[in-house]
């Protein structure tokens, strides 16, 4: 796959995170996340065809099944079950969110982060894009009020790290892929249980309604 | 072989607990597994003390250095003590209809998984396995924190889950950056040793950024300020023995992981960078915890802030270096033991008074005298009152900083005094004065006291005498870090 196409894919991931940050509908958030995961799978597949590795193929399959298919289906069922259609609200307003996005992307492209983005000199643009995606995913987790959006933020954060690892040529480590697989399993297991528990106790998935721990 | 035996025993215990429907079997199995873990960790610590490093199968999967040996020794000890306590504590909660058999069973399944994950995190020779194990502790403890299934417990667990997951992913990212020093196409499993060997190939700026990510990531699990916000909520909502384990076992384990990365970073950029960061985070932790403790309203949250403060003291010790490191390791050992004493005693207070609010606890010395005396001794130990060992460790750590960072040492001393004053204020309010009329006098059960008494005896002995093998282990840590 040529560099330009990889740049297009990385740019799309970044764009999807920006959309995740400003979207107000939970269905759109889940769709954007599913699409982001699919792009991660394509990037990993490209790496697999170039370098091979059985564990890599397993990691790709796990990501495909869990992140692209099962997780979005699970989230959509959850949204339908609890009627969460318009609860993907944020702490900052859209203009403020866009300003923070601009600042974060500028910071990543500053010389301070040059050691990170020049790990593989040929992939500087790709690494800058994936590092921006990491920072924006972090912002996504912090800025969203909904528990569901926070989970998606963390999963998006994971996706961004995986993409960074691929472009930094670190994806070949077998243990790294084990780490990724384990993390996906753990997260979705916990998310499944906790989302239901949260809704049962609070009647909403808006985390700003959690105010029992004040003392 | 021993380490695999410990982990397998704990996992098997979790599986048996999952399958059985008899309470007594769960209790016996959990007790046996934690006892096996204790004996195994003593054997391993003795081995490491005599050989310097224990790395079975050429260190492919496991390797235990001196600091790792100290940690598993602590883990074995506090694990056994909390298991004994948990059995009686949960029996009391069942009698009070606070929990049922299902919760009881769930508790011991998760407890054994938690132990296994912590042993694995300490002994894994591969940084990613270590990370996976720490993630495993998050999985088990999240459900233990939400154990009582109340809105506040769920909220505490959710906070813990989200903040720690972000922290761990940052730690994972930092780990990835350390991997850039190695040609991964020619290496199978990357271990701590090969990361150290290749550290000289790390770009110094990259090493600095990587260490910052790791420090923030695992520092979240340690509870260093400003990544501490989950801690008071989680500690106060979890069952008392779980609070004890989070503070006495998981905290030092995460701290040790930071130290391992510190050693690698120091090779790449020299020790000053990591030392300054540890001093900054350490001092902030002491200051913030001290200021909040003064106005604490909940005694379990008070203990949580005390853990943050002591994590700060340890960070200062490793930041200052020299004798500060020796003192920090000893401080880590004392802190783990005394925090179990305090948390388990807080469990007794909760069982008796049914409230974790300081305001609701009055005249405890008359109601539960043994627990009260144990708690007061714990308070004296943890605040660093002589002749207990923590007085000497705090003194050595602060004096280690006097030469290069006198202001930090002086202000840290001020905040440590403030911690003592705050603790004294709350202890006076809780233990002295007249007891409420509706509270009956008397301890619940002797087994709710024995673990704490045993640990106090151990702390007192270690305050005056260090067994040769432990002395060797601590000396090795000073040389290594």
Structure notes:
The complex is a heterodimer of chains A (215) and B (481). Chain A has one domain (3-204). In chain A, 76% of the residues lie in helices and 0% in strands. With 215 residues, chain A is mainly alpha-helical. The model of chain A has no long low-confidence stretch (mean pLDDT 84). In chain A, helix 3 packs parallel to helix 8 and helix 7 (147-167) runs antiparallel to helix 8 (174-202). By secondary structure, chain B is an all-alpha fold. Chain B has one domain (2-480). In chain B, 77% of the residues lie in helices and 0% in strands. Chain B contains 19 helices and no strands. Chain B has helices at 2-19, 23-51, 66-95, 101-123, 127-145, 151-178, 192-197, 204-222, 230-237, 240-269, 271-293, 299-320, 323-353, 364-367, 369-382, 389-402, 406-431, 450-464, 468-480. Chains A and B meet through helix 5, helix 6, helix 7 and helix 8 of A and helix 5, helix 6, helix 8 and helix 9 of B.
Structure characteristics:
heterodimer; A: 215 residues; mainly alpha; 76% helix; B: 481 residues
Portion of residues in helices of chain B? Answer: over 70%
Mean pLDDT value of chain B: 93
Structural class given helices, strands, pairing of chain A?
mainly alpha
Number of strands of chain A: 0
- Greatest contact between two chains: A-B, 44 and 50 residues
Could you tell me the mean pLDDT of chain A? 84
Spans of at least 5 consecutive residues with low confidence of chain B: none
| Percent strand of chain B | under 5%
The N- to C-terminal Cα distance of chain B equals 27 Å
Multimeric organization:
heterodimer
Distance between the termini of chain A: 56 Å
Overall 3D shape of chain B: globular
Q: Structural class of the helices, strands and pairings of chain B?
A: mainly alpha
Number of helices of chain A: 8
Q: Specify Rg of chain A, calculated over alpha carbons.
A: 17 Å
